[in-house]
User: Which sequence fits this backbone?
């Protein structure tokens, strides 16, 4: 009897009229937009940049690398044909910016992927296991934190430019010499950044460890790996995601600074930072060469930050409005 | 390996535009090719001077005293784009070190600059030497010191006279194991018979002895106290040059005062400025702003900014220097590579480049001409366009049939590729360095690749780090594919042939063509000026037929520097290499 | 407390050892070496000269021996001489480091000048248009590349208002304080603006946290005016963590002034560092990395201690 009534309830539950996904999404999105207009704006811009990175064909108006070059059309101001003018090689600045989005976005995302992976790995294991493992891991983290940011990245990029990643990694990945530099910047920056955020994640992991269900899982004999994956990681995920969205902005700025110092990506890869670097000696007469890439960097960093702030509020109410 | 210093010579010179822009501003001074008439009244001067006829080979003639020069001109507000790596002239090959050394130390010979002397006709003139004579076989040179060369009046040297003893210890330092710039002269031995005489014995005749002695990379005479612990040349400088050490704040500025006892200015009264202050400003935009604000007397100026500078600064003294630095495409030496299987591939690549358009890219030719500014647009041959004594115009009749390989002709280029067995082109790697030679080079290097791709030479770009890869590997022929680079502006043009076609590491494409090798060795030992010129012409034509090295136009156009309106005779002085602090600055004055 | 400090100091030893090791290896990972740099186009430099120079600068012999020798010197705080310029590294840094520190402190000052008021207002008016505007403003400052602003400013000044061109050579504070400020004020503002975004965010969040505390609610219910509550009760507590964050920015700045220094031709450590990296000048690169690491480690410790003093709730044991 009881079992039959149970099954009736279950059946009713299963057959209940569910709000369709698109309906829920629409409502959720609408709430996000009205409650977090700046975040929504950031999100929109981020989506546009992502599209540019994935499918530049949708955006560009001219061949960003015409062959033979159209040098005689060089250094024109903005016009109907060239919305943002042309650069020193006669290339369309707008189309170059569209293609440059790929570099910036790839570096930005690669940095946070590397950083989030490393930080989660070190942070959760270090926090979960504690003891000598924690002690040893934290000393390594100490070294990383003490290595001075930009200064060390410059050293890393200039030392490893011709060597990293080694051929057996680069070749299967199809990395050209130009994209190797992108890879190198992203990985070294990602690792450096990850060490800092691993501390925060370690803290969150230690907190999560105190939960009863972790104890319960251990009692029923769940393996450490399983506990970390199932019970610890979900608890720190919000922290990871939020710091990632903000780190992307920082990574894009760092790439442009490196490019400006001559350690960034190399031709023919277009990048906003490199465009600025190339414009530095032509600012007097052709400010448009610096204004548009500068604006692109600004917009991207601004948008990622705004989106990050809003996501944090939504995903992790405890951190609302905090760092 | 001989000739090592030439490499750096060239690279440093090139990089100055970007890193050391100011050196260009005042260093090269000015070819005046563009704005000042280049009265080439001393035809063949260098060769005559260098030809070892016994007797009056080179006699001290006072540098033109510049009637009307104004003394007590105050402080020359000059600029450098970087710090010398070290102050010791024998401690680093960098041109910044040489540019510092040349202000304080004398050489035996220097280059003569002045009204009417253009880049291509700059020639050696005595500095600390009074004269140099050679035996008729050209194997022994006797150099006499001037009697009035005094070191600066700073302890422990205290203004004493220079003797051959100082020359001796300096030569020993120059040739010591740890010297970074060992002389490449074929010197067998040096003797010092008395206090004012030095005798160099050579292993083979050299037509370029005086040029080598005048070269700012080779031989500086330092007082013997510098080597016996009297003072540390890495921290200060006491010499006999036109400028006396006052202070140096790293990354901020150098201050030097005039040497009232400078032997070269004995009659004219040079240096005319009381002191010179070199501000160290790495960023071009900042240098230009300082010049525009009147804080600097000189600055390098981009071709793009030139007309606005002229508009903004009333009476700005603009100087253009054309064509000192050769740029060229070179190839790997793998016999299986397309270009080594068939010379037509190399010819095709040369014809893929639209040199007029590349010239426009590098030198803003059209806009400057529209603004009424005269711009030189000669292309490089195997010798750089500025080397007017030897250069053969690639578009001129003298080139004969080989001239057509310089002309932009993608259709014929494709046909040549087809004929060579590559109707659909081929894939390769294209390499150059983008962190040394500055924006102009980088722009042209990037455009080259587009031009190659247009005829079917499709390439993956490998932009290499200068020091860790380009100059240690690619430049020495250790690479795969096509490369693009600059070559040192050698004061002595024979060096191009030696380095391109003989068995040395800097034979970048590892060319083994007995005909070319013979031309190179002949040019090195030929003492007759006319015969030598013919060898040089033949070499340029032969290279063009085979296109072993494909000359480009980067470095061939006009580079610009601006002087303050009050810098009266700024435009009249041009020199080679890094000699400006001794060869041009002392002769400037404020009107 | 003493035990805590002693423990922290002890933990520094492995950290610093790790830093020296990583840096030592990294500098030498570049193909070619400092000798090649000295000789210019080294391929053409003859082997005998290279060998002689390597010996002169003790670069011969195996890496482990070199590392141990260097470490021995570093322990005695002797960073040796630059291989490139032959000048003493610490002697050089005595000139460069204070300039960078001054620039950094000025930048922090400017960043607070912007961040504190904006952050406070933004927190008080949370989720209003004023809040949106303030946050937008702060994030905008963070998003503009500083070197871009610097270049544009210099270029425009040269062209349109030459009075705005910075002094051409650095003026030491001891020589002429006004001139020194004329040189450093604008670059410091640019750096400070970039920092202010982060500080503003942090200020806002700590303000919000404190605003929700019970005692603040009590204050409201007592009918105190907003001004009194904010200035007396909220700001005092909210700004404690801000102080610590600001302290942590010093080391970031010390490494981050490279570009602005070269654009404005300021003789700071960043410029010195970049030229040393390019020249592969091992002693200089190593010394700067190790010294900045020291600054970072001590700044971290200092911040933790200051925090515990300011906030009595936190006690280390």
Assistant:
């Amino acid at each position: 009897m009881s079992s039959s009534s149970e099954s009736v309830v279950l059946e009713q539950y299963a057959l209940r009229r569910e709000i369709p996904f698109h309906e829920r999404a629409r409502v959720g999105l609408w709430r996000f937009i009205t409650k977090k207009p700046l975040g929504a704006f950031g999100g929109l811009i981020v989506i546009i940049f992502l599209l540019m990175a994935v499918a530049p064909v949708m955006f560009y108006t001219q061949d960003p690398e015409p062959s033979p070059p159209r040098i005689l059309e060089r250094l024109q101001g903005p016009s109907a044909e060239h919305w943002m003018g042309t650069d020193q090689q006669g290339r369309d600045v707008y189309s170059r910016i569209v293609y440059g989005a790929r570099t910036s976005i790839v570096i930005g995302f690669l940095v946070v992927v590397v950083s989030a992976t490393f930080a989660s790995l070190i942070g959760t294991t270090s926090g979960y296991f504690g003891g000598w493992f924690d002690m040893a891991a934290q000393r390594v983290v100490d070294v990383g934190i003490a290595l001075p940011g930009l200064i060390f990245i410059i050293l890393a990029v200039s030392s490893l430019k011709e060597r990293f990643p080694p051929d057996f990694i680069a070749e299967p990945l199809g990395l050209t010499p130009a994209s190797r530099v992108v890879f190198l910047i992203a990985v070294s920056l990602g690792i450096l950044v990850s060490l800092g955020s691993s501390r925060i994640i370690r803290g969150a992991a230690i907190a999560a460890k105190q939960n009863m269900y972790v104890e319960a899982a251990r009692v029923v004999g769940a393996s450490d790996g399983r506990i970390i994956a199932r019970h610890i990681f979900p608890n720190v995920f919000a922290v990871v995601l939020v710091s990632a969205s903000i780190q992307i902005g920082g990574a894009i700025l760092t790439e442009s600074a490196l490019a400006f110092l001559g350690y960034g990506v190399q031709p023919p890869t277009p990048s906003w930072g490199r465009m600025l670097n190339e414009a530095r000696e032509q600012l007097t007469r052709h400010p448009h060469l610096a204004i548009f890439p500068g604006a692109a960097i600004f917009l991207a960093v601004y948008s990622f930050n705004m989106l990050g702030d809003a996501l944090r509020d939504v995903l992790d109410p405890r951190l609302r409005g905090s760092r | 390996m001989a000739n090592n210093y030439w490499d750096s010579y060239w690279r440093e010179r090139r990089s100055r535009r970007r890193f050391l822009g100011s050196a260009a501003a005042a260093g090269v001074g000015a070819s005046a090719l563009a704005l000042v008439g280049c009265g080439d009244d001393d035809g063949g001067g260098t060769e005559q001077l260098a030809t070892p006829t016994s007797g009056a080979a080179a006699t001290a003639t006072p540098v033109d005293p510049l009637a009307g020069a104004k003394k007590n001109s105050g402080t020359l507000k000059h600029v450098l784009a970087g710090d010398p790596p070290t102050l010791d002239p024998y401690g680093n090959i960098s041109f910044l070190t040489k540019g510092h050394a040349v202000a304080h130390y004398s050489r035996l010979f220097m280059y003569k600059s002045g009204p009417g002397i253009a880049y291509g006709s700059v020639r050696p003139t005595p500095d600390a030497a009074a004269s140099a004579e050679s035996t008729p076989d050209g194997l022994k040179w006797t150099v006499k010191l001037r009697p009035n060369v005094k070191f600066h009046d700073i302890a422990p040297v205290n203004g004493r006279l220079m003797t051959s003893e100082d020359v001796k210890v300096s030569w020993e330092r120059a040739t010591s194991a740890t010297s970074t710039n060992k002389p490449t002269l074929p010197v067998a031995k040096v003797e010092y018979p008395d206090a004012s005489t030095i005798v160099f014995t050579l292993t083979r005749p050299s037509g370029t002895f005086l040029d080598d002695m005048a070269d700012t990379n080779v031989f500086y005479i330092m007082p013997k106290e510098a080597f016996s612990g009297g003072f540390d040349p890495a921290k200060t400088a006491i010499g006999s040059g036109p400028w006396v050490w006052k202070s140096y704040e790293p990354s901020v500025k150098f201050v030097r005062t005039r040497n009232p006892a400078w032997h070269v200015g004995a009659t004219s009264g040079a240096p005319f400025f009381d002191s010179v202050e070199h501000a160290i400003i790495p960023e071009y935009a900042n240098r230009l702003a300082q010049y525009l604000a009147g804080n600097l007397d000189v600055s390098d100026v981009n071709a793009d900014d030139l007309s606005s500078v002229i508009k903004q600064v009333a009476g700005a003294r603009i100087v253009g220097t054309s064509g000192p630095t050769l740029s060229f495409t070179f190839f790997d030496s793998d016999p299986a590579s397309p270009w080594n299987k068939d010379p037509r591939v190399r010819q095709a690549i040369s014809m893929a480049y639209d040199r007029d358009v590349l010239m426009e890219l590098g030198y803003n030719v059209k806009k400057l001409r529209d603004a009424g500014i005269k711009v030189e647009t000669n292309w490089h041959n195997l010798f750089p366009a500025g080397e007017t004594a030897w250069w053969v115009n690639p578009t001129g009749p003298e080139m004969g049939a080989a001239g057509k390989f310089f002309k932009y002709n993608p259709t014929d280029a494709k046909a040549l590729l087809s004929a060579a067995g590559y109707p659909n082109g081929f894939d390769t790697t294209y390499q150059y360095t983008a962190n040394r030679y500055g924006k102009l080079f980088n722009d042209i290097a990037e455009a080259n690749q587009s031009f190659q791709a247009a005829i079917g030479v499709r390439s993956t770009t490998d932009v290499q780090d200068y020091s860790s890869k380009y100059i240690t590997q690619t430049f020495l022929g250790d690479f795969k594919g096509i490369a693009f680079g600059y070559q040192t502006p050698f004061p002595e043009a024979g060096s191009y042939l030696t380095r391109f076609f003989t068995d040395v590491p800097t034979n970048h494409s590892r060319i083994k063509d007995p005909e070319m090798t013979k031309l190179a060795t002949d040019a090195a030992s030929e003492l007759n000026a006319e015969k030598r010129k013919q060898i040089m012409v033949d070499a340029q034509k032969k290279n063009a037929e085979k296109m072993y090295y494909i000359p480009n136009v980067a470095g061939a156009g006009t580079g610009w520097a601006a002087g303050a309106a009050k810098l009266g005779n700024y435009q009249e002085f041009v020199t080679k290499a890094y000699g400006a602090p001794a060869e041009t600055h002392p002769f400037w004055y404020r009107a | 407390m003493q035990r805590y400090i002693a423990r922290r100091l002890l933990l520094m030893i492995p950290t610093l050892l790790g830093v020296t090791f990583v840096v030592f290896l990294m500098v030498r990972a570049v193909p070619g070496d400092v000798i090649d740099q000295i000789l210019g186009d080294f391929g053409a430099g003859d082997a005998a000269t290279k060998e002689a120079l390597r010996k002169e600068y003790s670069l011969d012999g195996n890496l482990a021996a070199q590392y141990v020798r260097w470490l021995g010197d570093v322990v005695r705080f002797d960073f040796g001489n630059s291989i490139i310029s032959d000048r003493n590294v610490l002697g050089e840094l005595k000139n460069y480091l204070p300039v960078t520190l001054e620039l950094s402190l000025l930048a922090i000052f400017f960043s607070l000048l912007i961040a504190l008021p904006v952050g406070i207002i933004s927190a008080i008016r949370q989720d209003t248009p004023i809040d949106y505007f303030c946050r937008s403003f702060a994030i905008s400052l963070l998003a503009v590349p500083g070197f871009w602003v610097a270049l544009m400013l210099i270029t425009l000044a040269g062209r349109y208002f030459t009075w705005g061109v910075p002094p051409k050579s650095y003026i030491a504070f001891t020589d002429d304080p006004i001139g020194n400020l004329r040189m450093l004020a604008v670059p410091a503002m640019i750096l400070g603006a970039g920092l202010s975004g982060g500080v503003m965010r942090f200020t806002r969040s700590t303000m919000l946290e404190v605003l929700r505390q019970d005692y603040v609610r009590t204050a409201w219910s007592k009918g105190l005016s907003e001004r009194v509550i904010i200035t007396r009760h909220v700001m005092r507590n909210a700004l404690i963590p801000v102080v610590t964050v600001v302290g942590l920015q010093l080391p970031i700045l010390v490494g981050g002034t490279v570009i602005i220094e070269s654009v404005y031709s300021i003789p700071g450590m960043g410029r010195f560092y970049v030229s040393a990296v390019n020249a592969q000048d091992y002693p200089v690169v190593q010394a700067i990395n190790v010294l900045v690491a020291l600054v970072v480690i001590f700044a971290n410790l200092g911040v933790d201690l200051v925090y515990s003093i300011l906030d009595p709730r936190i006690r280390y044991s």
Q: What stands out?
A: The mean pLDDT of chain A is 82. The first helix of chain A runs from residue 2 to 15.
